[in-house]
Amino acid sequence: MSADTKIAELLTELHQLIRQTQEERSRSEHNLLNIQKTHERMQTENKTSPYYRTKLRGLYTTAKADAEAECSILRHSLDKIAEIKSLLEERRIAAKMSGIYNENDPPRKTMRRGVLMTLLQQSAMTLPLWIGKPGDSPPPLCGATPASSDYVAKQGDKVAARVKAMDGDEQWILAEVVSYSHSTNKYEVDDIDEEGKERHTLSRRRIIPLPQWKANPETDPEALFSKEQLVLALYPQTTCFYRALIHTPPHRPQDDYSVLFEDTSYADGYSPPLNVAQRYVVACKENKKK
Q1: What pLDDT does 164 receive?
Q2: Along the chain (290 residues), what's the average pLDDT of each consecutive run of 10 residues?
Q3: What is the pLDDT of residue 103?
Q4: CB–CB of 188/199 below 8 Å?
């Protein structure tokens, strides 16, 4: 089965799940309305009789079951969306690999800067929010939660990579994993900025995987970097990571971090607060300020 056919099937299944969600919600809204009306009658009569207690117990039991059913459908929908995104990513990687050229081939068409910045913003906005079940802990690569020590980033994954710049200095860039060699423990990564068209071979210590889920500040605040914590953050409108202090962590799932970048042009050594998405904020491996 082709990727396009599979994606079409998944989209159809997703559409059906969305309709089921709406049906489940309509049913639960009717029950919630009955709960509200029952409470209003109790207030009007100013008494809580055994009849009302039994009725409310039944209504709340039904409401709980309705909520769990809707939650199950929504989780199933999120799984379908993840499958679709995975297939789209596989298709993108395959197209990229088929376009690999050697020295004798014509150069690749360079992506316009504005288009690249838009794609990076979209990647940050569409990063899935981690929604665990009661009692679940955020997994590795959720927000500030680091990857496990034996984690190996997959082909196509975005990472922060420490490379040597043209002037000899080292810098952290946004890169895409091409491959990983278990025999040498080294990655091959491409600079995400196609203007450079550079491929780098780097050891694991020079690679930091980016978050694969956003952490929810309302349910998992421990999975976020805290105020004044030192991080590496992608400077707005660039593809490079720089050292920064967390000024304000996100307060809502859709919020960005507010960070202070190290900048000697300011009297206190830090820039004014700038917003950076969770997708592009990682732990800093260097503790000392340069």
Answers
A1: 87
A2: 89 95 92 94 87 93 93 92 88 74 48 83 92 90 95 94 86 94 95 77 96 95 96 95 97 96 94 97 73
A3: 47
A4: yes
Q: Where are the domains of the chain?
A: 2-105
Phi, psi of 33 (to 5 degrees): -65, -40
First to last CA, the chain: 54
The token pair at 32 is 């919630």
Give the residue from 14, 7, 119, 27 showing the smallest Cα distance to 69: 27
Which amino acid is it at 217?
A: P
Q: Which residue carries 């091409």 as its tokens?
A: 178
Cβ–Cβ contacts within 10 Å for residue 10, how many? 17
- Total residues belonging to the chain: 290
φ, ψ of residue 221 to 5 degrees: the values are -60, -25
DSSP state of 210: P
Q: Identify the pLDDT of residue 133.
A: 83
Q: What is the DSSP string of 18-70?
A: HHHHHHHHHHHHHHHHHHHHHHHHHHHHT---HHHHHHHHHHHHHHHHHHHHH
Chain-centroid distance of CA 202 in Å reads 24
Going by their DSSP bridges, the two strands 199-203 and 186-191 should be labelled as: antiparallel
What's the pLDDT at 287?
58
Measured CA to CA, the distance from residue 242 to residue 286 in angstroms comes to 11
Nearest to 209 by CA among 187, 225, 226: 187
